[in-house]
Amino acid sequence: MRVNSSGAKTSFHAEVQDTSAPGWLRLLQLIEEAVADGREEFRPLPELSPEERRQIVTLPASIARLTAVRTLVLYGSNLVRIPPEIGDMASLEEFSPYTSRRLHWFPYEITRCARLASSTVSTRSIYGNYKYRPPFPRLLAPGDTVLDLECLPPTRWGATEARTCSVCAGPVPVTGPHQAWLSRAVATDVLPMLVNACSQACLGSLPPGAKGHIPTPHRGVGIEQPPPR
User: Fold this and answer.
1) InterPro entries per the record (predicted)?
2) What pTM did the predictor assign?
């Protein structure tokens, strides 16, 4: 997926995490070690070889257990998505995925990190950034097909699973989440966030977008963005 300022449509990354890859297994181990020793800074990538780092396209749901971590550093990662469980990192104060240039959006659940005060994001790479306004991928309404919410195709939904509502934390219906984009200030950056809601009512309860960005939740392609600053 390429992000550009030409007005071309964008799409979600299609990669699905290989959970048998050595890099993934090592990352799981590093998380367990960090949970056990209660460390306040989690910087896993230097502990992996270059090949192992390339194998990591998301983070495990077990990051929810990193409740003592205050600083999360993912500098130069190969990540294409962050799981919603980042919202359970209750002590998180500093988030740095800088130069993770394949990371174009974030889960709305990151707004649950009430202590998050500092972020370092490669803003040129994110959807709708203030300078280049790259377009957001189109989001579709849920259909009437029963889905495996733990095994979603990322090219369609962005994420590979959506079990709980980004807004109220209730269960997502088996026909899939009600999705929207919303750009809001999180720590020191305005981040484009993907909302996976259980209903239109939850989407309707979302706060307004950041000043200078699309003011309401939206479905992406075809939405007129404010001019670049």
Assistant:
1) LRR_dom_sf (IPR032675)
2) 0.94
Total length of the chain: 229
Element (H, E) at 41: strand 41-42
Q: Are 213 and 190 in contact (CB under 8 A)?
A: yes
Domain ranges for the chain: 22-204
Residue 98's closest CA among 120, 72, 125, 71? 120
User: Alpha helix (H) ranges present in 5-95?
Assistant: 22-37, 50-54
3-state secondary structure of 119: strand
Helix or strand holding residue 156 (H, E): helix 154-157
Of the candidates 31, 35, 92, which has an alpha carbon nearest to the alpha carbon of residue 58?
Answer: 31
The one-letter amino acid code at 69 reads: V
Alpha-carbon 80 to chain mean position: 8
3-state secondary structure (DSSP) of residue 24:
helix
Task: pLDDT band for 222, please (50, 70, 90 cuts).
Answer: confident
